Amino acid sequence: MHTTFLRMLIFSSLIFCWSFTAGCKPKQWPDSPLYEPPENDPAWAPPVTAAEARAAIQGHYAHYDIVAYIGQTPAGPMRTFIISYGFTDFIVQGNDLVEIDRFCHSVNKNNQPFSANLNDAATQAITPRTATVELSQDGGAWKIMRPATPTLIGINGDPWKPLSRNPNDPNINDADGDGKPGVTVHLTLYGFIKAELYIARREIFQNFLTLYSDGSLYGHVVDTSEQLVIGATLNLLNMPSNPPQYEDQGLNPILLVPVAGDLDTCEKLMANRDALFPAEPVL
Question: Domain ranges in the chain?
Fold first, then answer.
């Protein structure tokens, strides 16, 4: 996951860039892939059967994923990484392998002079539904595909239906409990312009993973989420915005690292972040 709902900032911030400066010179994407997959131990004997693969994968994992987004405006391209931290658990149920995800913290990085902050209560309000994954073997490697299970945040309703486009929809809720509609994103532009954006989202993502000899799972994320801008404290920001994912698998990685069962709180996860995951990319 990843927490992709900060992407409405992409278009809005570029308008500020166009309005307050003579023009921006956006930085380019870093080299792809951001990270190389682990090297398998030559002595490793991978699981032979699907049952053995399910048993090998079953467990508790620290979760790290990045989703890249691209927005095109008169000021130039806006490139954004949404980095998500959390936990993923795999459970064997009969002949099925079931994935359960829980998110803790998210970071927004972009190539424009603004900062965005989503409090952890909002990130933790994302509760993807349990998903039965597809397990397959390709050239001796075991692959996992987590299918899309649409999840609503900031609005009630049927997650299998398209997201409402009505900012006054009576089904909008206060997902992060701050007394404001939907989910609140705190924004600072050019170090002094402060604003809030209120959004609702229909989170839709798939994970494609490969099992490695160290027990980790590495792959990429595909995100097709939908977003509704409910309102903003600056009228200039109160506009539809739904930039697409940047389609480069190497810039949308996901890494699941097996951890002990007692590493089970968001506080413990973030305290151990540097020991578990590679450095965050720079934009």
Answer: 4-29+43-276
